[in-house]
Amino acid sequence: MRKAVQSHATEFALLAVIAVISLFLSFATDRFFSLGNAFDLLNTSSVNIIFAVGLLVVLIAGGIDISFAVAASVVQYLAALMLGWMGGGGWISGLLIAGGLGVLLGAVNAFLIHKFRIISIVATIATFNIYFGLLMFFTRGVSIYNLPDWLTARVILFEHEMADGSWIEITLPVLVMLICVVATWVFITRTTTGRQLYAFGDNPEGARRFGINIGAMQFIAFGWLGLMAGIGGLIQAHYAQEVVPNALYGRELDVLAAVVLGGARLGGGKGSVLGCVLGVLLISITQNGLNLAGVSPYAFKMIVGAIILAAITLSNTSIEKLLPFMRQEEGRK
Amino acid sequence: MTGRESAKSGQKPLLSLRNINMTFGGVRALKDVSFDVLPGEVHCLAGENGSGKSTLIKIITGVYRPQDGAVIEFDGQTYSHMSPVTAQNSGIQVIWQDLALFPEMTVAENIAFQTLLGRWPRFVNYNAMREKAVKALARLDVTLDVDRPLKDYAIAQRQIVAIARALVGEAKLVFMDEPTASLTQSETDHLLDIVRTLSASGVAVVFVSHRLAEVLEISSRLTVLRDGALVGAYSTEGMTQSRITELMTGKTFDQTVRARNVNANPVVLEVEALSRPGQFEDISFTVRRGETLGITGLLGAGRTELALSLFGMLKPRSGTVKLEGKPVHFSSNRDAIAAGIAYLSEDRLSLGLIQPQSIADNLVISSLDKIIAGGLLSDSRKRDLVAQWIADLGVKIGLQTDAISTLSGGNQQRIAIAKWLATDPKLLILDAPTVGVDVGARAGIFDIVAKLAETGLAIILISDEVPEVYFNADRVLHMAKGRIVDQFLPAACSLAEIEAAVYA
Question: What is the pTM of this model?
Fold first, then answer.
C-alpha cells in the first residue's frame, strides 16, 4: 500500500483533495452528494476528459498544444457541412470524418514542429490563431443549428429513477469518453509505441540514440490528440445540439490546467491517464459544487485557480513530508 | 588479466575502421583515423577533450555519418556508415557518459529498452522485460528493484543499469564513455570487475577514461587520438601514465610537490567541532592565509556537504566557524559570499556556469555590484573587468560575447574560478575542480591555484583524486564517513602513504 501511495503520489493527493472538497460541498449544499449529481458530472465532463487524455499524450512526448480546442471547433463545423452534403450520415461516418479531420489538423502541428523545428508552444499558438481566424472568417461567426437528427438526439444508454425522484443517466458521451480513456491507457502503458513516447519525452537525446524515429513520435502524439480533439468536437456538438464556432474557444487552458494538475509534466516523460481524469473531475466537481452553492460564476475562475495551485503544491511536496509515518518507513530501509 | 591474454598479434579484428573523416561546420573533427578492436579485448581510447574520441564513438554507433570513403568493418561485414539500428542489431552497444537513460521509466524498462523498439506497435510484455532485466543484473551480480522508476536510484546504480542494458542487447562490443567519472573507489572496483567479466565472456570493451591509472589497470591495448588525428595504437604492457599523457598532449609534464610551510601566516578560517549528523561529525581544522588545504576521501565521505556548510548552503547542527577570528553564522550563501567565501561547485556544467550565456555574463554574475555605474550595469566596466580576469588567468577565448559552452572544459573551469575571484574572496573552496578537465588543462588550473595562494588567498582544495591534493596542497586532511581521520604533510610523506590510507 505504501509503495502504491509513493509511486502514485499525485493520484492519491488528487483523490484526497477531491474527497475533502466533496465532503465540504455535501455539507454546504443539499444536492451535491447525490448519485444523480454524480452522473450529471460525468456527463458534462466527458468532452473535457476526451480532450485531456489526448493532450496528455502530447505532454508525455514533451510537447504542448494550444490549438486543439479550436481545431475541434473547425472539425465540428467541417463535419457538420460534410454530413450535410452526404445527406445525413450516422454515428460511424460522423466519428470517422471527425476523427480523420482531427488527425489531419494535429498532423499540421507535428509537421511544423518536426520539419521547421519550431517549438511546440509557438507552433500551436500560431495554428490556434490560424484555425480560429479561418473559422470565424469563413463562417462569419454563424452557428449551425440544423444538424442531422441522429447527432442531436440524446442517446441514453442506461437510466434509472432513484428513490428520491432524481434520475441517473449514462449517455453516449460517457461511453465514448470511456472508450477514449481506455484506448489511451492501453496505448501509452501497454504498447511499444506508447513507451517510446514516454522515453522520447523523458530523454529525447537518449531516444534518438536508440534510433527511435523522432518525426514519427511527433506525428503520433499530435495525431492522437487530433483524433481525440475531433471525436471530442463531435461529441460536444451532440451534447450542445448545435455548432457554435467559438464554443470551445478558451477550453484549451482549462484542459491544460486539468492535465498538469493530474501530474503530467510540462517537459515530458511523466503523466498518467488516471491522474488526468482525476484532474478534470476535480475542476468539474469544484465548479459544480460552487454552482450548487449559489456562488457567483465570476468567482469560479478565481477559486479554480487557487485549487490548482494548492493541489500542485500538495503533489510536488513529496507525500512523505506530509505524512510522518512514511518518513519513518523510509528511514528504516 | 584476461584482457591481456586475448590481445595476441595476428588475430583478426572484430572492428576495423579505415579512412574516417568528419567535418563539423568547416572544422575537421577527425582526419584519416583508423581504429581496430580485437575480439574480447579491453581497449582504451585515449585523448584530451576535443581530440575526437566522442565523434569516433558516434560514428561507430551510427549517430554520425562519416564522409565518403570511410570503411567500417564489424564482425565480417563491411559498411560505409552505420545507423543506430544497424549498430545495435549487429552487437555494438554504448554506455554514454550521460548514460542516455530514462529516469521516469522503471529499471526494467531501461534495461530491456530494446524490446520496446521497432517501427510497428506491439503490446508490451512487461513480464519478459522484467525477466530480462533481472537476468542481466544477475550476470553483473547486482539486485535492484526492477519495478521502481530509475530516478529513485543514484548514479552508481544507474551506471550498472546502463551496463545491464548493453548485456540485454547481446553485445559483442561495448563502448564505455567515462564510466567511472562519478563512482566511488569501491564502485569503480566493482565496475572494473564487471568489465573483466564481460571481456572474459568474449565481449570486447572500449574504455574511455580520464583516469589513467584505471586505463593501465584494465586495458590490454590503447589507441591515442590528438586533435582529431591518430597518434598510434599501443600495447599497455610497459606503458606508464606519464607516457600516455605525453602521447595525448604532445607535451611532457613533471609533477612536483608544491607544498610550502605557511604556519607563520595568520589564520583565515577556523572550524571547530562542526557537525551535521548523518553527513559529517566533529570537524575541526584551520586554514591560513596563502595556504592550500587539501581535503580528500572517497565519494560520500561528507566532503561536499562540509563545503556547502561553510558556504552557507547547508546548516550545521552544532560547532563554530570563525572567519578571521570572528564567529560567523550564514543563513544563506549570499551571507557567505559577502563575508568573503567563494565556492566552486563540484558540478560545474549544471550548477557553476550558465551554459548558453556569454563568457562575460558568466564571469560577472557573482560580482554585479562591481560593474555598476550610475545605478545601472555598465557594459564598458563589464568588458574591462572580464578582460582583466581573462588576461590574469590566461583563458583562451574568442569573443567575450561567445557562449560559455564554446569553451573547452579547462577554459570553462578558469572562467568559473575567475567568476569567484571577482568577488574578492578571502577563502576559495574548490570542489573537484578537475572533473571533466583534460590532463593538459589540469596542470594549468593548478598553476592558477598556486599563484592565487601566493597572493595570500586561503584555499580549500577538495578532490577524490589523491595525487591532486598530494602535489598541490600544503596540507592534506583525509575524510572518511563524515569525520577527519588523519592529516598528512605532502612535504614529509609519500603519495603511496596517503593513497593506502584513503583506498584502504
Answer: 0.74
